Amino acid sequence: MRRGKLLYAQSGGVTAVINATAAAVIETARAHGIKAYAARNGILGVLREELIDTSRETKSAIAALHHTPGGAFGSCRYKLKSPDQDPAEYARLIEVLRAHDIRWFLYNGGNDSADTALKLSQLGRRMNYDLHCIGVPKTVDNDLAVTDCCPGFGSVAKYTAVSVAEASLDVASMKDTSTKVFIMEVMGRHAGWIAAAAGLAGDGPDTAPHLILFPERDFDAKDFLKHVKATVERVGYCVVVASEGIRARDGSLLAEAGGKDAFGHSQLGGVAPRLVDLIKQHLGYKCHWALPDYLQRSARHLASATDLKQAQAVGKAAVEYALAGHNAVMPVIVRTRDQPYRWKLEPVALKRIANREKKLPKSFVRRDGYGITAAARRYLAPLIQGQAEVAWGRKGLPRSAKLRLQAVAAKLPIYTI
Ligand code: F6P
Asked: Residues with catalytic annotation?
């Protein structure tokens, strides 16, 4: 065993494949003879000294993480203040890391989590504590800067495209005597990547989804209703995919579920029923709507094999970067070819990624604003390729990992947050 331990933690909204990254981290650390701990509930587990000894897990339990959705060690939305604003919090973090001889810290999350990993790396330098911090990419929103795509996105994209394609066949059967409009709301916050992925379900002007509402475009109710009506009159029915983050011209969100998280992000959700009300009131069509919500980011049964591979690769690379002495970097995915799809990983400085949000480029949105372009298809199509294997159990349900989650004995006084 080498001196020092590696600490891995999960942060932000979880995905269908984040545990595959965790498994890759733990397996790679083991292969290098490094003891790996995991923090319970992300950075909160570090502050609270709630650490899990992953060396107590069997090889097969860790292997089962490759096909288990959710975040096996618990996640969190918790924003560290700046070291000047809250020096005590930083002193505590270093105290916990020191107490357990943590020399490598891997934080698996999105842009807010990259900020946390960056702050910790700066803290190590300032406190003269030898610490290597690596951000590990993950987010269904696909909005991380620099990387070509984010682990977690390919799977939500596949789930979305497949669900829209299937539901559209249902509506098409009902359209003559019953439902005329089906609306599916998707996640993604202020970036329209997931909404765009729905576009993969269609392959011609009148195939579903007929209208996609992107958060990057102002929502204009009158224009939207005009398009719904025209589609129903032309095609017989209309399938709409709406991003949870769509806004009116004045910047106000169409729907908020209420409440804000530690980063000040409003909880979104509820756009689909709003749109249905609008359509019923003005056009009188019978509508159905779906809000897959957590279903879309936990649908491991329909995960993309490409996404799974990338989630595993970033976990392995993160450990290798850390052990090679990198600090304050993230393994990012670099696309080298669209077809056949080829990609590689490269370390990129966290300061180029932390707190930035990559929106859907204009060139990906069709000129009328309600669909995707050929360029978007070229980008999106490879990410949903392949069906990640599922471990089906005897009861007809997928088998998920059962971890012991053995706590590491605390060495410090209790810290309450
Ligand atoms: O950031 C990923 C994401 O799934 C967003 O698309 C969504 O708006 C948000 O998380 C929901 O967050 P939470 O699970 O904390 O409510």
From this structure: 141
- 16-39 pLDDT, tens digit each: 999 999 999 999 999 999 999 999
Residues 199 and 240 in one domain: yes
Q: What is the pLDDT of residue 32?
A: 97
Q: Is the CB of 297 under 6 A from ligand 1?
A: yes
Domain match, 122 and 13 both: yes
The whole domain housing 211 covers 153-299
Is there an atom of ligand 1 within 6 Å of 140 CB? yes
Q: How close is the Cα of 314 to the center of ligand 1, in Å?
A: 21
In a domain, 182, yes or no: yes
Give the Å distance between the CA of 336 and the centre of ligand 1: 30
Give the number of domains in the chain.
2
**pLDDT score, position 2:** 56
Q: Is the CB of 138 under 6 A from ligand 1?
A: no
Residues 170 and 220 in one domain: yes
Q: What is the pLDDT of residue 408?
A: 98
Give residue-wise pLDDT tens across range 281-307.
Answer: 999 999 999 999 999 999 999 999 999
CA distance 61 to 81: 36
DSSP per residue over 126-190, as a string?
Answer: HTT---EEEEEE--TT---SSSSS-TTHHHHHHHHHHHHHHHHHHHHHHTTTS--EEEEEE--TT
Residues of the chain with pLDDT under 50: 1
Pair 252, 181 in one domain: yes
Place of tokens 């929502």: 219
13 pocket-lining for ligand 1 (C-beta < 6 Å): yes
Rg (CA), the chain: 22
Structure tokens at 57: 């897990």
Mutate to test the pocket of ligand 1, among 140, 144, 159, 263 (most ligand atoms within 8 A of CB): 140
- Do 193 and 84 lie in one domain? The reply is no
Residues 230 and 240 in one domain: yes
Give the other-Cβ count within 10 Å of 77's Cβ.
18
Residues of the chain above pLDDT 70, percent: 99
The reply to whether 259 and 163 lie within a common domain is yes
Characterize 363-401 residue by residue with b for buried, 16 or more Cβ atoms within 10 angstroms of its Cβ, and e for exposed. ebbeeebbbbbeebbebbbbbbeeebeeeeeeeeeeebb
Burial 293-329 (b: 16+ CB within 10 A, else e): eeebbbbbebbbbbbbbbbbbbbbbbbbbbbeebbbb
One domain, residues 200 and 312: no
Q: Residue 123: inside a domain, yes or no?
A: yes
